[in-house]
Structure formats: structure tokens, C-alpha cells
Specification:
5-stranded mixed beta sheet, 5 strands, 120 residues
């Protein structure tokens, strides 16, 4: 029994790895986030921001599959809100992300959209 407890303590839960994907359509760019959005994914967030900005298209961020977000993710969204042409949309943000946007007031700079949008 003590071996089982020791094994459980020695093997902490590992969160879902983060991914960042940029999809460019004819009328807008979409950044799709999933997993744990934290400092480890910072370079990928910066790259996605730069590439989305270079398109000159309106940008939306699909956050539906985000399982965790820290201040790095909030800073990414703040950069997006101040840097992109037009108002950046956040699609299908889970409650934890909505809470962060509300507490930091970054949500005031973004369009929060609860449903999915067709992408073209």
C-alpha cells in the first residue's frame, strides 16, 4: 500500500501540451490555441502574432481547447488587442479564460464570441 501512495506522489499529473496554429483565410486569420498556454509556449505565441499581423487581415483567436492560461497568455491577448487591425475576436473561450479576461480587463479590448464561426 505504501508503494502505491509513493508512486502516486512521485508521478504528478502532466497537463495537456500547448499548441498554437495560424490559419489564414480569404477574409481573416485565425489563431487556434489548445492545451496549457503559459511561458513555455511564448515563442510560438510571438511567432503567431507576427505572422497574423503580416497578413493585414482581421484576427480571431479560437480558445475552445485551452485548459490553462497564465499571465503569458493574457499578455499575448493584450498584444493582439493593441496590435492587430480592427477588434480581435476570442472564440469559444472556456470559463477560466473568460475569468482572466474579466479580472485583467483585457476582455474590454476584445470581442468575446461564445459560438464557433465558419471560416473562409
Amino acid at each position: 500500500m505504501s508503494d502505491q501512495v509513493h508512486d502516486a506522489v512521485a508521478t504528478p499529473d502532466v497537463g495537456e501540451p500547448a499548441t498554437v496554429h495560424l490559419i489564414v483565410g480569404s477574409s481573416r486569420a485565425r489563431i487556434v490555441l489548445s492545451g496549457e498556454i503559459d511561458a513555455d509556449i511564448g515563442p510560438e505565441l510571438t511567432e503567431a502574432t507576427d505572422e497574423a499581423d503580416a497578413t493585414g487581415l482581421p484576427v480571431e483567436v479560437d480558445a475552445h481547447h485551452v485548459t490553462f492560461m497564465d499571465s503569458s497568455g493574457v499578455a499575448f491577448l493584450a498584444r493582439m488587442a493593441t496590435r492587430m487591425p480592427g477588434r480581435v475576436s476570442i472564440l469559444r473561450a472556456p470559463p477560466t479564460v473568460k475569468f482572466l479576461l474579466e479580472v485583467t480587463r483585457i476582455g474590454d479590448l476584445l470581442e468575446i464570441v461564445d459560438e464557433s464561426r465558419d471560416f473562409d
